[in-house]
């Protein structure tokens, strides 16, 4: 199977051959998340870092030799990845920083970074000969799976908490997924999905359980480094719920280092909401994420609300091994970051995406990053995912519509009253 050589348990380091285990370490159950191992020597001999740009494939599949899929497998026909990396000098200047870029993964087909993982899940499910694909999700992973399944003409079964935001549920229904809205928390939806999939043999995409999801998400790291001319940034900021994205980011960078496609590892900063701070708290207090009990998570950033982050081992390793940090930001800081980012860059983020920008602002304030650092902030989800929060945030920042009568006189009065167009006409 490509250059995949095995899977290693993050708890006991036991290694398994490809196909020997499907999801987690049999000795450690759901705690025993697996890292996917590759033969870097063979990859390095076969492909160079200039090859993905010349690939006949599109988006994340340009990096197929670094993905755990069979050479001939067909990806779903939606363009996933190849999202833009924008320099944001005006925003950076406000924070007293130097070169800062925003990687806008809200530009993916279902409008979040989760498309990268779900595209891989659809391929893995087909390779496994599975019929139904299922996942539990706070919303975006579900929308991504539903969309990519629709593209591939496959059925999907989705578990979401009943509180999932309307835009994400609308996506699920439009894509034709079967949606189970669980009267409970996201964590309860995960438990139910795991139990149902085990009992009925569905292919399970659930984050932190399926080891291949961070393999899909790692492609964001490849693209960032490629877009920066293979000169890795000094620091990357990303929001963290279950920890799969930051784990995948780390994995992608480790791959690139192992292949010598980049020369150094960036510091990874995981940004959590203050009301969903499991990993940040464990980090600060030196607690063991294997024994730390779940917390009650509450935040406006629904995508990063996780009482027991499923990929906590990969997330911890990402921050520890890169000498980064976990940071927390309040819901107010998250909401405020939505119009700041939108006005300063044109990138419209959902709360979980804007949280990463709020985290950068906090880190700049604490001196964790400075003007000499080359910094990338990942927007993980599009602002249209949560219009109510965006509107609230913009209004709290002083924005308001100006309602007028449908006549010329009212228009002129409004222009005069609000000083509109002076010096701009
Ligand atoms: C927009 C967005 N940002 C961040 C995250 C956090 O990713 P993870 O749960 O892998 O930490 C998610 C996960 O749902 C998301 O949808
Ligand atoms: Zn194990």
Description:
Helices cover 39% and strands 14% of the residues. The chain has 425 residues and is of the alpha/beta class. The strands form three sheets. The chain has a six-stranded mixed β-sheet with strand order 4-5-13-10-11-12, sandwiched between helices. Strands 8-7-6-9 form a four-stranded parallel β-sheet, sandwiched between helices. Helix 4 (115-127) crosses helix 5 (140-152), helix 5 (140-152) packs parallel to helix 6 (166-174) and helix 13 (331-345) packs across helix 15 (387-396). The structure holds pyridoxal-5'-phosphate (PLP) and zinc ion. Residues 9, 11-12, 14, 25, 27-28, 32 line the site of zinc ion.
Record field, number of beta strands: 13
Distance between the termini: 62 Å
Overall pLDDT metric: 96
Ions, cofactors and other ligands present here are: pyridoxal-5'-phosphate, zinc ion
Biggest sheet: strands side by side, in what order?
A: 4-5-13-10-11-12
Number of helices: 16
**H and E order:** EEEHHEHEHEHEHEHEHHEHEHHEHHEHH
* Proportion of residues in β-strands: 5-15%
The share of residues in helices is 25-40%
> Based on CA inertia axes, which overall geometry fits?
globular
SSE class: alpha/beta
Radius of gyration, in angstroms, nearest whole number: 22 Å
Q: Major β-sheet, in short?
A: 6 strands, mixed
Name the poorly predicted regions.
Answer: none
Task: Give the topology, please.
Elements: E1 4-9, E2 15-16, E3 34-38, H1 40-46, H2 51-54, E4 85-87, H3 89-94, E5 100-104, H4 115-127, E6 133-136, H5 140-152, E7 156-161, H6 166-174, E8 178-182, H7 186-200, E9 203-204, H8 213-217, H9 219-227, E10 235-239, H10 244-258, E11 267-273, H11 278-285, H12 312-321, E12 325-329, H13 331-345, H14 351-365, E13 375-379, H15 387-396, H16 408-418
Parallel strand pairs: 5-13, 6-7, 6-9, 7-8, 10-11, 10-13, 11-12
Antiparallel strand pairs: 1-2, 1-3, 4-5
Helix pairs in contact: 4-5, 5-6, 9-10, 10-12, 13-14, 13-15
The structure holds pyridoxal-5'-phosphate (PLP) and zinc ion.
């Amino acid at each position: 199977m490509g250059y995949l050589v095995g899977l290693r348990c993050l708890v006991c380091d036991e290694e398994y051959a490809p196909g020997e285990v499907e999801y987690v370490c049999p000795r450690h159950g759901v705690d025993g998340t697996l890292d996917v191992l590759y033969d870097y020597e063979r990859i390095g001999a076969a492909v160079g870092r200039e090859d993905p740009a010349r690939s006949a494939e599109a988006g994340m599949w340009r990096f197929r030799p670094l993905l755990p899929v069979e050479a001939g497998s067909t990806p779903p026909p939606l363009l996933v990845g190849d999202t833009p990396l924008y320099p944001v000098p005006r925003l950076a200047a406000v924070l007293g920083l130097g070169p800062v870029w925003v990687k806008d993964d809200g530009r993916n087909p279902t409008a979040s970074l989760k498309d990268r993982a779900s595209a891989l899940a659809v391929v893995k499910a087909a390779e496994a000969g599975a019929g139904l694909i299922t996942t539990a999700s706070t919303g975006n992973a579900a929308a991504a799976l539903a969309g990519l399944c629709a593209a591939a003409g496959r059925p999907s079964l989705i578990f979401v908490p009943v509180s999932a935001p309307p835009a994400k549920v609308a996506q699920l229904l439009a894509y034709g997924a079967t949606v189970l809205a669980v009267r409970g928390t996201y964590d309860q939806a995960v438990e139910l999905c795991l139990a149902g999939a085990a009992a009925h043999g569905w292919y399970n995409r659930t984050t932190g359980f399926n080891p291949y999801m961070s393999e899909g998400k790692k492609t964001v790291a490849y693209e960032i480094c490629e877009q920066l001319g293979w000169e890795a940034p000094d620091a990357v900021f990303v929001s963290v719920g279950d920890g799969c994205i930051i784990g995948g980011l780390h994995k992608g960078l480790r791959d690139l280092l192992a292949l010598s496609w980049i020369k150094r590892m960036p510091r990874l900063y995981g940004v959590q909401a203050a009301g969903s701070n499991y990993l940040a708290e464990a980090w600060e207090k030196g607690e063991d994420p294997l024994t730390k009990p779940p917390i009650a998570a509450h935040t406006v950033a629904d995508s990063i609300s996780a009482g027991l982050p499923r990929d906590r081992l990969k997330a911890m390793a990402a921050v520890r091994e890169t000498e980064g940090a976990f940071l927390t930001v309040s819901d107010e800081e998250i909401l405020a970051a939505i119009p700041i980012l939108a006005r300063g860059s044109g990138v419209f983020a959902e709360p979980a995406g804007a949280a990463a920008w709020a985290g950068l602002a906090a880190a700049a304030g604490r001196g964790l990053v400075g003007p000499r650092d080359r910094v990338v902030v990942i927007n993980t989800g599009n602002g249209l995912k949560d219009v109510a929060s965006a509107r609230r945030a913009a209004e709290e920042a002083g924005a308001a519509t100006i309602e007028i009568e449908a006549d010329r006189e009212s228009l002129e009065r409004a222009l005069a009253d609000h000083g509109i167009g002076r010096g701009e006409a």
